[in-house]
Specification:
Elements: H1 6-9, H2 13-41, H3 52-55, H4 58-82, H5 90-105, E1 110-119, H6 141-153, E2 158-161, E3 164-165, E4 172-175, E5 178-181, E6 184-186, E7 190-195, H7 198-206, H8 211-216, E8 223-235, H9 261-270
Helix pairs in contact: 2-4, 6-7
Amino acid sequence: MSFLGSGIRHQPWIWQVTVLCFVLGFLLAGSVQTVSGLKRSGTSGGNRIGGIAQQAGAPIETVLKQQKQIEELLKEKTKLENSLALGEGPQKALNDELQKMKLTAGLSEVTGNGIILTLQDSKTGPPSNRQFEAEDYNIHDVTIQRAINELNASGAEAISINGQRLLSRTAIRCVGPTAQVNGVPMTSPYHIKVIGDPETLAGGLTFPGGFVQWLNSYDPEMVKIEKIVKKDLVVPAYSGSTEFRYAKPTAPASQTVKKSPVSQTTDKDTQ
């Protein structure tokens, strides 16, 4: 505890980080509440025709605006955290470990090589004698999830869909004419940015009998892969809620206090 003592107790950035955390928490709560309302109101059926504005209108704009504010606050918070790294010793070590954990958790914007996978509904649809296959010519949540599974198996290190960063808890599901990612509705086309080795990622999608060949059997225009090899592909940080309501860290066994037989007997007698 000494390295966090008087040396940094009175530094002004402490108060800046504290205020920033309060504002960030307020925006996160508002974003979660708005998204929850969208989920409750967006469960009605519908076909794949239509747009986000027709389904939800202003609430979606509110969610996107709040997420933009959260992204800016997270960037500012990272700058303040990095002020720790200007020092030496424990302060720098603490910040280095913090930034590493944020990178692993998907809370940092990342840049690197990778691919951009674009999925979109077919513009032509099935032949006239195969209208019963019309749904197969649209991109559904299961289509996106299948692509994500292949990308993860091919070593993807960071993935976003139309600006939404994917985490282990991210849900991808269809609601009416839209797909929801992190609770945010979006429609075709879906631009999936993936950081990793471009050749390996593309190979995981294009092997014989794989994902791309499957979509091409319906319409080759439904899928497109662009390789990015100049290390300028940017995947944004996750900007949704990170609250855990039920999961708690498990205390180490050495910190677990066991009652002795004497104390157990005493407790029973006192009852």
